[in-house]
Amino acid sequence: MSDMGSENKIDDVGWYNYDNQDQPLSASPSMQNHNHQHSKFLTLPTVLTLGRVAAVPLLVATFYADSWWGRTATTSIFIVAAITDWLDGYLARKMKLGTAFGAFLDPVADKLMVAAALILLCSRPLEVAMSGEVAWLFTVPATAIIGREITMSAVREWAASQNGKLLEAVAVNNLGKWKTATQMISLTILLATRDSSLGGSGILVPSGVILLYISAGLSVWSLAVYMSKIWKVLLK
After folding, report:
1. Which InterPro entries match (predicted)?
2. Of 82, 206, 211, 213, whose CA–CA distance to 145 is shortest?
């Protein structure tokens, strides 16, 4: 309905200027304000973030593609998503293009990409010498990481409805940044070597698994730190 209304306003302006050809063709203030809000909504960082959301189905499709290029495509999509995750935040700060919608969508896009990658890895358990497939090897860290993200999303939503001190308590800290870094590196390695066994591909697969467990440990640790800060604020 709002689009229809905008079209009607454009038509009205056009007919008005046709009947009054001595006056220059110009949009009404309401149209200019609408166009400004539209451009403010779809900023470059927001477009990059929307691209990450749109890339999630592509990640899934290429992961299960029965072709030589499937693994390369999956890994490339994840790497590009990780780069745009940094880039959209940098551009938003550098060019002052941050928006409320972008601030909301950015962590959603990150969580969707990471959760999709973890679930995909869980669907193809690694083979371990003498033991065969070990189903829990990815399931344990994946549960810890996804569970932490869901919990923190709920906690931050609740903190936003309370007071400023609670928001400060759940602000991103260095522990969370280390968690994200190890998470991205481990998932990139494991997606790139997904058809290998734990004893294959040299040290790549073991290092990817170790980093994933480190990331899961940091996830649980950072959650405990956040909850401790919140508890201290509530006790005051």
Report:
1. CDP-alcohol_PTase-I, CDP-OH_P_trans, CDP-OH_PTrfase_TM_dom, CDP_ALCOHOL_P_TRANSF_CS, Phosphatidylglycerol_P_synth
2. 213
- Return phi, psi of residue 194, to 5°: -65, -25
pLDDT digits (tens, 9 = 90+) for 95-148: 888 888 888 888 899 999 999 999 999 998 877 655 567 788 899 999 999 999
Report the C-alpha gap between 66 and 172 in whole angstroms: 39
Pairing of strands 132-133, 127-128: antiparallel
Nearest CA to 120 among 191, 16, 37? 191
Give me the residues paired with residue 132 across strands.
128
Give the long-range contacts of residues 37-40, CB within 8 A, separation 24 or more: 40/99
Separation of alpha carbons 57 and 145, rounded Å:
21
- The CA distances from residue 96 to 20, 32, 33, 89, 127, in Å, are 40, 21, 19, 10, 48
The structure's pTM equals 0.76
